[in-house]
Write a structure and sequence with these properties.
With 203 residues, the chain is mainly α. The protein has a domain of 142 residues. Helices cover 79% and strands 0% of the residues. It has nine helices and no strands. Helix 4 runs antiparallel to helix 9. The longest helix has 29 residues. The radius of gyration is 18 Å and the shape is globular. The protein starts with a helix and ends with a helix. InterPro entries: LeuE-type. Pfam families: LysE. Its main location: membrane.
């Protein structure tokens, strides 16, 4: 059971390490808001990640027999990603000449929930992990294995988001203007994922 937890932690940590909407938003909140808002954001993210990890276990049971569902979700993901890309582009234009966030009262907990729900790659990613673990007989569908897997995923996600926040200032120093234009970076990330998903259908 410990191996399921450790592997869930590692895969989640590595999966959320590259720049993405979630960790770049965490970075942005930590730079422009306070620790309380940052922790609220992470809590919102982790709530949905736990549900996504749990759902992915059962989704794996049926994924091979329901390829049409997978294709439908991927196509829907393209639309969502394009909408997010436009949203971040619009936000970048609005904030072009300022760094501080105006909407101080915005609830970052629900921001974390919202962005996690729109993360169309989470369930397929976690399902892939489940399939991998099952192929090596490291996991089955009993309650304890599922619980350890979900906990590992949640803690791995928490730790990488925590590190993004903890070293936000250093990351900003290293990346320079990139963190001053995070909305543009997020626009490019979501647009890139949308293009990548679209190319899967045409190539």
């Amino acid at each position: 059971m410990i191996s399921v937890f450790i592997l869930g932690f590692l895969f989640s940590f590595l999966g959320y390490t590259p720049p993405s909407v979630l960790n770049m938003t965490a970075l942005k909140i930590r730079l422009q808001r306070n620790k309380k808002d940052f922790h609220y954001f992470i809590s919102g993210v982790l709530l949905i990640v736990a549900l996504q990890a749990y759902i992915s276990v059962y989704f794996t049971k049926y994924i091979t027999d329901n390829q049409k569902l997978v294709i439908l979700l991927e196509k829907g993901g393209i639309v969502v990603l394009l909408m997010l890309s436009y949203y971040f582009y619009h936000q970048n234009k609005k904030e072009k000449n300022r760094i501080e966030i105006d909407n101080k009262n915005k609830n970052t907990f629900f921001t974390g929930i919202f962005l996690s729900i729109l993360n169309m790659f989470a369930i397929p990613f976690f399902s892939g992990i489940v399939a991998f673990l099952m192929s090596f007989k490291l996991m089955n569908f009993d309650t304890i294995s599922i619980l350890f897997f979900v906990i590992g995923i949640v803690i791995g996600t928490f730790y990488i988001l925590y590190l993004y926040g903890k070293y936000a200032s250093k990351i900003q120093q290293k990346t320079g203007n990139m963190t001053q234009n995070i909305n543009l970076v997020l626009c490019c990330i979501t647009g890139g994922f949308a293009l990548f998903t679209f190319l899967k259908f045409v190539i």
